[in-house]
Amino acid sequence: MSGAPPGRKWRFHAPVVASYAGVGTVTPALSQHLAALPPSSLGTAAQVITPGSNCRHEQVVLWSSNRGGVLCSCFTGTQNALFLSVSSRSFVCKHTSALLFCLSTARTRLAEFWQRIHLGAAPKDFVRRSPLGSSSWLVLFRSVYLLVSFTPANVAACIAPSCRRFRARCGHVKLARPFNAELRSEVAVAVKEWSSSAPKAAPAGDSACLHGGLPEEDAGIEKEPGDTVRDGGDAAEATVALRVRRNLLLCVARGGDWRAADLKGMSNLFDVCAKSGLVHENGLVSVEPYCGSCGCKREERHMVTKEAAVLYTHHPSAPPMRMLIGRWTCDCKRLVKYDGNADALFSLRRRDQTRRWVVFTRALLDKLYSFIISARSTYTAATRHLSADILSFSMRRQDVVKVGTDMLRTFVIPPETACCPLCGPNPEFIVIDGQALGCTYPDDVNPARLEEEVPVLDIQASALRVFQSPALRAAIAKVLKSSTALTGPQTELMRAWHRTIAVNDRASRVGNCAPNFGVYSTDDDGAWLHIRPFLQAFLGETVSGMFHGHDEKATRLLSNCLRLQVAGKWRDVSEAVDGIGFLTNFLGWFAAVLNEDEPFRHAVGTVLLCAVDMEEAVDKLFSAAANKRDTVARGCVNAEYCRKWGGMPIPEDYQRWRASKIGDDGGDMDDPLVCFESFLGLDRVRPGIKDSEALKRRVGYRGEALSIVLECFPSLPKVIFYDVACKLDKNALRRVRPILSAHGVRCILDHPHSITHTCSPLYMPDESLGATAGVATQAAEVWHSIAVANRTSLAYMAPKTYMAHKMVQMAMMNIRKLQRMASSNTKGENDHVALAPFYHSKLVRVCQRGSACSCQASIVDNGVRETEAALRHKIDGTGGINDLLGAEPAAAVAPDGRERAEENDKDAAVGVKLDQDPEVDDMLDEDVAEVVVLDEHAAVVEADGDAAAMFHPNIPAQDVSLEGGRLVNLEPLSTKPLTDSKAAGLKSLVADRAPSTLVRPRSKAKIRLTVADFRRFEKEMWLTDFNINSLVALINSRALQVAAMRGAGMSAAARLPRTFMFNTYFFSRLRERAGSYDYAGVRQWGSRNGLDIASVDRILIPVNLESVHWVLVVVDVQHRHFLFFESLGGTAAAVLGTVRQWLTDEVQSRLGSGVADSWDIGSWEGVIDVGFSRQVDRGSCGVFVMAAADYFALGAPLVFDQKDMCVLRQRMGVALFADSLSIVDGCAFLPNVCDGDETGDAE
């Protein structure tokens, strides 16, 4: 049920649910289906659901509680089933949603279903063998079902929220362990009998083990003299052109084309290699074709000076090759030395002992950096490896580290490699690697930073606790954490506070505060494991911040119900504390006692109310301390900082603040080698904060975690995983408390660190499931740490060298993770998968070699980037013919097997071809797991009554072509929210599906749109070239419809501007590198795609700046001006200058010099800012650009702003799914996943 596509399989299961409830009619077909379902040993009490996977995270149990709720045992749940079972609420997850939907479809009321299937008031605990595996057990313990599994090492796994913190000793595991032990003994006997009769295998030798170099081997090698030098006769480095930027991973054309060719002889092989730059004529001088600083192309007038060089190749036995390289002087007065990128080479720009320049093949250096980055080894070990593997390689390790570092610094790391495909640029959870904030050589690190003085305010830690007496807290902590006897004064304190406090985890304390084992026995783990965290959190630690992200008013209502209302009333308002794990565990476990014991209930309510009131009290303390006269006099700006930067600032706000600082010299503080921080694609949005007094006590530079989070994220994350999260939280609440409170930030330890910390359960991961939303917190830092992975290999490098390597290492780690997340098997192993096809098809926009590289041919020919499957086919020769770009989709086949006919609906009056209903094509790509299959798509809704509201206000309805009630939509994207049913239908296209699943196999842009592409329209995700170009094709398609309607004399179309829009690769090709301009490269792009420069009114050009930000240029030919649309308010001079030059060349080329002179394009005004709405989030620039393009194309005023981004994302998703902007109701094609009377989406 959990894996069923919405709208089809769920309806199929609806009769099954009705049958379980005893209210449905069981047909022969249904009986056969029921027999095929997984067996359940629980009768009508619960049902085991599994999608066919053996992963325990995907196997769940559904059941009805005694009080009427539908509960689930799924791993991703953030609610406590034990706690929910004491109320009438249901679990909120995909499994319970599916069940409730099936009940609704089957016309079965939940109450009627509950009457047939629910637990009793006091069900008996039991254990049964699970049908899902030999070591999996179905366990019912305290009214909570769970699947308990055991590993071959007999390690138990219990995933109930109430058990996760103590999963190896909770009640479910204790019940299942004897049964599993008996099963293991039976298996052991059977194995012993089998092994005694089986032939003995020969003992295996020791397996080989690859060891990296020792960490101290690289210490100081950068400062040692090497064999490569730069002597006094060489040009100064400052006068040499900058190095050419390179692809982080090789593109297909680099060494892969010859394998894709049909080789019939050595002559063909030689030709292919020569064209690819793999073979050079003897005596040919290799020259850099472009200046790396200004982008100027070398011409014949630039004189070349020849010099000798030696080329080291990756061939295992070939000797070094002699070659000639040349240098020339650019018009910018820079000396352009040979770099080698165009020839798949790399020049070290250093000479060997014979004064020859040293050059390497890219493949050789790939071996080197793969050994350093992927194998996490040292340069010493890499030098040994290369000298053993390549006969001609004899460079010393100090030279190897130079060439490796110089090579890594030329790599272009796409911002996409640092952006989660699920969370986007504003993640809900972040993991801070504490070791990444330090540096081995702090004396060499002097980061340039602009910060505000925001110190820790003078708020005593005791003011954040229920008990402010340190001595009493120490006594309570001793009781909770040890069995050490209390001292005399501590005894008196405890007596004065309370007569007894019975809690300790199996400690053998006697006398004062001894646990009352007469009520709860020593083996009753559950009671003691729930009592201790509750008391520790409320009585022993700070309670301030406990309710961040929760409804404090609702929590106060719950506490008052416990204190003042009758027994059981508190159950109805328990939802307020769902996300506070230790509290839900305690209330769920002792629910019956709370109802029976009024003093106990009143005490719990009083403690809870005290914690809630503490939040308001601490707010007042913070305000008083921040505005204190002497605090302000010291230059502390805590109050002003929180007031100014507490909302959702944008980079423009930070830039204005920075411009106001006198000490800012305008340097690039975002350069990783200047600030020693690297956050790709994340512009600073807030100033950093510092505590000058604390800095005086620190040794060397250590980045501050709190400051980094505030600087990088406009919307702060819900959870910060950190190895000292407790200290970070307490520090933050006394520095910027209003900001963290407003954003609901929680600081959480991961499991390894939580074991060693004695802080409150507030910081324990499994006690904060409501905040962590089921995120796996096992060793969070270890799994995501870059410092840990590179601790041995990079620890002894200089800071700048370390930073360069760390950035590439992080990118490579993320690329492999992103590739797995985008594949059809998101949990499969991918260490063996070549990353280059994925990298070049999904993560980078252009190849750094430019249009000369053959991997750019598809963009030039079709305007479409080659798919990952096509690129992989070129590399390894795998895949079928349909994997290649441009393969036509197979004919769609209806469910009954008949081929669907393509309907060419035409306007009878004017011959305008209208958009057809979307069809689902057969699967084309072998690497794609599935294709989204829809229900019978609904017909386009016919308009009733006055149709004028469905069109642009200036277009009379009677002028729009009609046929059979169908209308052509000429309105821009609506900002009216979708109905709940349509929004659910859109979400169902991507919910619980592999990212590689095809949603639209062939769009008008000739692009295959997958689940991953549609997920780009969720949250604040960046739009990619695939998304933008698919929408560009729809705008141009609608423009053709409008042109045909205008030709038929329809006044509605005549009032609209004649529009053409280029795709995203146009400007990238026009200006391939900084300072360059190449009209010849795009001369045919306009005419090939239908641009008539003589009759167009508006030309729209999307531009991507630095691969991180989308802007739009509107060439208004009709009114003779340029419009620059920038959602963040940036500068436009360079972009408008390039577009102005292109338009001049285009008019001269198409219409002649006379027309170009009459147009006088040089005098056209460039409109940069006309009061357009601004973007205030991190990832909606692409949505702003395409929404603006849609409005500009129809001559409509821009009436949207930031608050409309969520709706516009939905509308764009609907348009891409329907593959049309001119369909009146594109939502009619979405799958129906909700039962109700909602029909179309009224525009």
From TrEMBL:
One of its GO terms (molecular function) is deSUMOylase activity. Keywords: Hydrolase, Protease, Thiol protease. It holds the Pfam family Peptidase_C48. GO terms for biological process: protein desumoylation; proteolysis. Gene3D superfamilies: Adenoviral Proteinase, Chain A (3.40.395.10). SUPFAM superfamilies: Cysteine proteinases. One of its GO terms (cellular component) is nucleus. Residues 1007-1192 form the Ubiquitin-like protease family profile domain. The keyword Hydrolase applies. PANTHER family: SENTRIN/SUMO-SPECIFIC PROTEASE (PTHR12606), UBIQUITIN-LIKE-SPECIFIC PROTEASE 1A (PTHR12606:SF1). Belongs to the peptidase C48 family. This is Ubiquitin-like protease family profile domain-containing protein.
